[in-house]
């Protein structure tokens, strides 16, 4: 959802900015641009297209100067073309700005500025920022105070970086409800939408609060409030390293991230004690709401199934964008759990702000992100940076965190679940490693079905949310229409869509008679599979059942029979991720950068 960078330092500014903004390409790849201050003048290079393509044309990294700003765009206002690309400048090109977010009152501001003679070049909401800054400078404010006055006129979300040719030593930045982090290095200082932009240079960061003015200089960073008072900010050290944000020999980040999952599970399990501590203060909770979007919603939905089966806590799951219709029943005995990889999703962030009457818990991957600052408690999923736009390893880490949470919530109520869960979850890395070594089978299936136009994913009970996630992954990165359904629901309407051109992926985990989760789903699922088979659909069966009824399937992928229903959501999603990945590859697409999407959705 757009990425911004700013840098002042002793490094070669063009190449530092180019390298940094490239690390944020997952946030938007409609257009890219860099503006620097060179010998008292703004030098601007920008165009629409992916970073490498634009660089071939206009050599972004060669731009000269001593400081600068850069931007990758995910278009909201105005088509992706050169004029709408950032940075935007004022009329005489003395000020340049980059912006991530949406200026909600831009039309009113624009009309006002036009009436005063300011001339707009682009269709973007962002351009008003450059002209507003000029207006306040013309009114007699210095650059820093102009930034302060300017943000007082803005409604909406923003992370802004700005440079001005009469202010040759500083990049200024400010945020409101959009991500922005400051990086402090020996070679200079950074602002960026996300840490990977400057991990090569430093792990030392400051997380500014909303509406704090950041003054980036070569040798120091000053943070002020809107009254001009200098603030004492906490410097934190990030655990990530540069390698974590690189492909490390894989063709795509998505494939690397799928393969990292056994280690991610081990890492996420390290949060056991923290989760146990959080739960020890939740004894009086009688109702839980999960709130999330997309893949995170599917992890949350798995949590609802677990809580409903293994505790007596009534649980609901609500899309973040729909949450405002469900706030009347919140009270101090309600736990509202916000699940978000980025911790910056605008819909989820606005939902957490509406839920303060309840107790709030965030399950988030990104340290210091906005949602973590709003929550009473935070569980960090510890998956490391995820660069591929399609969530994979962070989904698994959310699931493991949720399983642990349910485990501790059920400890007193259902001791058997607690012990079984802990012992099963510890075996998950081995199960995933085994099926990753069976990747060729998935490749074969992906190749066979790459031209199929329609997919259904079926599962019942705990594995139903995994069916939704399998369908979402396929839609996102292959552009094939796919739907996830509870297996038993298909006959209530969607069965009418089934014919020989449709592929149906059936998820049928093993039932384990010794397991407390023995809900007898397998037989029912297989019966539902027969219903679609007799309507001529192509069946791809994923199962861990050793005596499965396999004669009627077109393709079969089997897993360790120890993977029973209880633990199946954390394991079965991996072959589904691989299936989508390889179909995307066989279709000649880029799974890391699906069309129209961006990693972090910071607009409502
Ligand atoms: C996942 O593959 C998607 N890119 C998307 O659905 C994502 O899960 C959703 O936008 C929520 O993001 P969050 O977890 O960062 O809040």
Decide which structural class fits the backbone.
alpha/beta
> What is the number of domains?
3
Number of helices: 18
Query: What kind of oligomer do you see?
Result: single chain
Q: If you consult CATH, what is the topology of the largest domain? A: Glutamine Phosphoribosylpyrophosphate, subunit 1, domain 1
Given this structure, which CATH class of the largest domain is correct?
Alpha Beta
Large-scale geometry: globular
Low-pLDDT stretches = none
Q: Estimate what percentage of residues fall within beta strands.
A: 15-25%
Going across the major beta sheet, what is the strand order?
Answer: 3-2-4-1-10-9-11-14
CATH architecture of the largest domain: 4-Layer Sandwich
Number of strands: 24
Distance between the termini: 11 Å
Main beta-sheet strand count, sense and barrel state: 8 strands, antiparallel
Mean pLDDT: 94
Bound compounds, please?
A: 2-deoxy-2-amino glucitol-6-phosphate
Task: Give a short summary of the structure.
This protein is of the alpha/beta class and 604 residues long. The strands form four sheets. Strands 3-2-4-1-10-9-11-14 form an eight-stranded antiparallel beta sheet, with helices on one face. Helix 3 (106-115) packs across helix 4 (127-138), helix 9 (294-310) packs parallel to helix 12 and helix 15 packs across helix 18 (568-586).
